[in-house]
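Researcher: Please predict.
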Amino acid sequence: VSLDIHLNRTLRNGLRTTITLMQLVETGRDSYQKTLFSYDMDTCKTLRELLQASLMKVWLRNVFKYGNLADRCPIQPVRSSPTLISSKRVWVTVSYPPPLQADYEVRNFQLENNSIPAYLPPGSYRLHDTNYYGRPKGKQRRLVATFVLDIKFY
């Protein structure tokens, strides 16, 4: 898995992230998504504390090994591009090779055995990540980025 993140502005304190892990379950002709957990967190605070000895800490450290992701806020664009300055959104592309030089990237990411909880059986899973400014349950969320990652454990 490779991931390119292009920023058109600095991400500051107040940025929130919701991460939801769902198991994709097939029963004959039907299939559904069973939510295993959903976290909503202050992104900058989480990066500062690295979630002290939790599953998220193990996952974040695993991801950091494969890229140059920022580990604290503010998260700033590495370079500026005239094509990005006029845009008011941040986007995530999951394609390789990238069309532009990415600000942050993950290359050839692989889940390490110790980052897969023993209670997760082999199967198909979906990780949904949403980044926004606003209150967790508020109506006035300002979306920054979202991505969905499908995972298969063997």
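Model: The helical segments are 43-49, 55-64, 82-85.
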